[in-house]
Design brief:
Helix content: 40-55%
Shape: globular
Structural class: alpha+beta
Radius of gyration: 13 Å
Number of strands: 4
Strand order of the largest sheet: 3-2-1-4
Mean pLDDT: 89
Number of helices: 4
Strand content: 15-25%
Largest sheet: 4 strands, mixed
Low-confidence stretches: none
Number of domains: 1
Order of helices and strands: HHEEEHHE
Length: 108
């Protein structure tokens, strides 16, 4: 079940950051919220470090490397001013939502 946009303190904080539609779709997916149209139905990191998503229009897309994803998510979290606790919560959500076959350790 997808939550309403801005349904948690963490999502309201992250929503304030300006970023590309693709990045907002990724953040929304991690938070289990629909922030964009199209939104993401799934996201996976392959064992060789590729990032593949399935947007709501249904075609698999390669969107980049896991290295870029982790760097961009870290920068996004820093720009949003996440506390340590909020970063741990975001990491927990990432681990639960993203099929990351490269590293089951999460973002941090």
């Amino acid at each position: 079940m997808v939550k309403k946009v801005g349904s948690t303190k963490l999502s309201r904080k992250l929503m304030k950051v300006r970023a590309s539609g693709k990045m907002m779709a990724i953040i929304g997916y991690v938070l289990n919220e629909k922030w964009t149209d199209p939104y993401l139905l799934s996201m996976a990191v392959t064992s060789d470090g590729g990032v593949v998503v399935v947007p709501s229009y249904g075609h698999d897309e390669f969107i980049g490397s896991s290295e870029d994803l982790r760097r961009n998510l870290g920068g996004f979290a820093s720009t949003a001013g996440l506390t340590r606790e909020e970063m741990f919560e975001f990491n927990r959500l990432y681990v639960n939502r993203v099929d990351d076959w490269e590293s089951r350790l999460g973002l941090i």
